[in-house]
Automatic annotation (TrEMBL):
PANTHER family assigned: DTDP-4-AMINO-4,6-DIDEOXYGALACTOSE TRANSAMINASE, TRANSAMINASE
Necessary cofactors: pyridoxal 5'-phosphate
Lineage: Bacteria, Bacillati, Actinomycetota, Actinomycetes, Kitasatosporales
UniProt entry tagged with the keyword Transferase: yes
Keywords associated with the record: Aminotransferase, Pyridoxal phosphate, Transferase
Name of this chain's protein: DegT/DnrJ/EryC1/StrS family aminotransferase
Length: 345
């Protein structure tokens, strides 16, 4: 039954998202961060609970843990930077660990089966941050469908976009019922609960944005194909250079950013220079750094996650989006090639 406090457009968008991802429930939200916030609360994560999270993550992925008073426990990545190092994760388990929150940065996602098995062994909830991974498919599954709940962003620049917004997906009826109630001040509670018996939030997606996002969803196959083609174009234009090498993710990757491994001194400074030259990228533009090294995010001191640090510092993740024309991609490639050839810090 539709929620009487959900707009008609948002309700239609929710149904379309559930069908597109092949899940029982989808709930659109005001942002990807809001989706993570709702998912964690709906899954029963609260103050003092420890959650395993990758050091290879943006601050927005970790912030919802702070909102609810949970403790992020940072886990290193494998050498290629895809997924979590499960041996490191196992070493960091305690009797307060309640969940694991993988983050599919740059649209890359690992096979979900090993993490799901790890979570089952240790009784952990899996909340996937697939905010950059719309359409990525690994191990026969779409990113965001391998855990208990998957969370996405539809901010401008994502493959599905509505200016601002997000959504969560799940097959768990209990999580869906709680998230739906919490999304709108707990006005429509689950069965056997009273309205407003729990503090909720205004995490609704505005009706015009829901309509816009729904239209974007209808074009998703086209948008996915275009993003993959854009990333492939930049990789081809910059192949053969000695100072950077295109990174080719596994088949099924959505092409979220064009990725290159840097082979030069002071790569972070180089990324900052590119940003100043108009080439938006994760490090130079958005100041990406290991989450475990950010004092605002790290609740307790811990040994640095060195592989995550190396991956971030040596990866040039070039921002591409639906507005880039072919000539824009050529200009980006020319700028990168010129600055790489001249780089002498």
């Amino acid at each position: 039954m539709p929620d009487p406090f959900t707009s008609r457009e948002a309700d239609a968008y929710d149904r379309a998202l559930a069908q597109a991802f092949g899940v029982r429930h989808a709930l659109c939200t005001s942002s990807g961060t809001a989706a993570l916030h709702l998912a964690l609360l709906a899954a029963g994560i609260g103050a003092g609970d420890e959650v395993l999270v990758p050091a290879l993550a943006v601050p927005m992925s970790i912030a919802p843990l702070h909102y609810i008073g949970a403790v992020p426990v940072f886990v290193d990545c494998p050498a290629d930077g895809v997924g979590l190092d499960l041996e490191d994760a196992a070493a960091k388990l305690t009797d307060r660990t309640r969940a694991v929150l993988p983050v599919h940065l740059w649209g890359r996602a690992p096979d979900p089966a090993p993490l799901a098995a790890f979570a089952r062994r240790h009784g952990l909830v899996v909340v996937e941050d697939a905010c950059q991974a719309h359409g990525t498919r690994v191990g026969g599954r779409l990113a965001g469908t391998g855990g208990d709940v998957g969370c996405f962003s539809t901010k401008d620049g994502k493959l599905l976009w509505s200016g601002e917004g997000g959504f969560l997906i799940t097959d768990d009826d209990r999580i869906a019922d709680q998230a739906r109630a919490l999304r709108n001040h707990y006005l429509t509670p689950p069965a056997r609960a009273l309205p407003l018996s729990r503090v909720g939030f205004n995490h609704r997606l505005a009706e015009p944005l829901a309509a816009y996002a729904h239209g974007s969803l209808h074009r998703f196959d086209e948008l996915l194909e275009r993003r993959r083609a854009q990333a492939a174009t930049l990789a081809e234009l910059l192949s053969g250079l000695s100072r950077l090498t295109p990174i080719t993710p596994a088949p099924g990757w959505n092409g979220y950013s064009a990725l290159f491994e840097l082979h030069l001194d002071q790569p972070r400074a180089f990324a900052t220079l590119l940003a100043a030259r108009g080439v938006a990228n994760s490090v130079g533009t958005f100041h990406l750094a290991p989450a475990d090294r950010r004092p605002a995010l790290a609740v307790r001191p811990a040994a640095p996650c060195r592989r995550a640090e190396r991956v971030i510092d040596t990866t040039l993740a070039v921002v591409v989006h639906h507005g880039h024309r072919d000539e824009d991609l050529h200009t980006i490639a020319e700028t990168i090639a010129k600055e790489a050839a001249a780089w002498a810090p």
